Amino acid sequence: MLSIPYNEGTISSELLFPESVRWIVPKPFASKEINNLAKALSHPVNSKRLEEEGFEKPILLFADDTRLPSPFVPELIKELKTKTENVRLMIACGTHAIPKETHAKSVLGDELFSSYKGSLVYSSTRNPASIYESIGRTSRGTEIELNKELLECDFVLSTLCVRPHYFAGWEGGAKALLPGCSGYKTISQNHSYVIGNPDARELGIKGNPVREDINEVSNLLEKKRGIRHRILDFVPNLQDEPVEVKYGDPVDAHRELAEFGERICVVKTRPSSVVITVSEGSLGRSFYQALKAATHSSNMLRLDREQKPTLILIGKMDQGIGSDTFRQEFETYIGMNPEIVMDSLKKRVQEGTFNETLQKINRMMMYLPKVDFMVVSLDAPTELETMLERKNIFFSRDLDEALETLNAHFLQDVAIIPQGNATVPSIF
Question: Which residues contact 340 (CB under 8 A, 6 or more apart)?
Fold first, then answer.
């Protein structure tokens, strides 16, 4: 019997054996000394030190519960409060639902949560209280609408995790503003740049139209409103501990972190006909988010055989499909001819009816027709199972039930990616 990590437990198989399995994992990095934060603040990347910045109304942005939270939030609040008591906090949710209070409490700690509970701002397109205001357009013509409460401040500090992102290149950096604190129209327009563009993918920064568009927002904010944006971002190791931390310019500091991140997450390997990937942690809570792991893992599928390779996605997915918008688009497009789908998506961009979930459909159509895609979850609600079955996508609550459908020969070389969101296979 072989066991695969599944949330805080495992999911087991009696059909897989250690000698026939390859584990594809990021490189191990030990966490550094606790002075990570102090070192980052004292050696800023292309900016002044935080203590040298002038501001009266700073705002600190951090991630919602779909991302690895920054452990530096409490310390950064203290740093900001050495200059002013007028510190505001905002959770950058983008289009995600507002997280439960337990998320903010876990990030802030009991004392700070008690102090800021009444003034904590949730920037989300699903939050009726979130009002957005235009600050101008990027060079690509994206109209940037940011949360109005952010625009009432004079200094923005964000702290995010930097891991691969399947179409924006990397998490973190200026993504705190777009999509984190942007309006729905802005997010949809930015995400539309993925359609038919192979450069809009994980690891890509230069030449990636989505990331390049995002990276203009911080400069636009300062130019149009005089509001400076700085980041304190980090690259985590396998244990979700920060192993590299940078403070400074949201583009330059982020680029240095991405370069470091490649040393951890990019794993050179040979292709396989069977790949099992796990969408771990918060990114495995919904099918929509879990698909990021499937996208990364599709890079190592062997596509040169008569029989299709198999990609098995494992995740908790207890929050179901994701948004209603994604469910509707998935029901519409999955199973259609890929060329027809691409033509439709391009037309919707021109019509202005593109929405941010369609970037997921775009990327899925690049690999889904070429593979046998299966989903395994112990916790997913019935609605997800039903939707997948309608689209002839195999779903099971038992891994071996999925493996039994495969040619036994394929099980002699199975690749398992236990941290699919943080791992990018690279074929040699």
Answer: none
State whether residue 168 is helix, strand or coil. coil
Interval 120-138 mean pLDDT? 97
Residue 114 lies in domain: 36-264
Give the pair of three-digit tokens for residue 97.
């639902």
Q: How far apart are CA 166 and CA 404, in angstroms?
A: 30
Q: How far is CA 166 from the centre of its chain?
A: 8
Model pTM? 0.90
Those residues whose C-beta lies under 8 Å from the C-beta of residue 100, and which sit 6 or more positions away, are 65
Which residue's structure tokens are 């609040």? Answer: 77
Better-scored residue on pLDDT, 142 or 27? 142
pLDDT, mean of residues 215-225: 98
What CATH number does the domain containing 275 carry? Answer: 3.90.226.30
Residue 31 lies in a domain: no
pLDDT at 305: 67
CB atoms within 10 A of CB 49: 13
Could you count the other beta carbons within 10 Å of the beta carbon of residue 310?
24
Which residue's entry shows tokens 């740093």? Answer: 79
Which residue carries 């509970």 as its tokens? Answer: 117
Q: Are 277 and 256 in contact (CB under 8 A)?
A: no
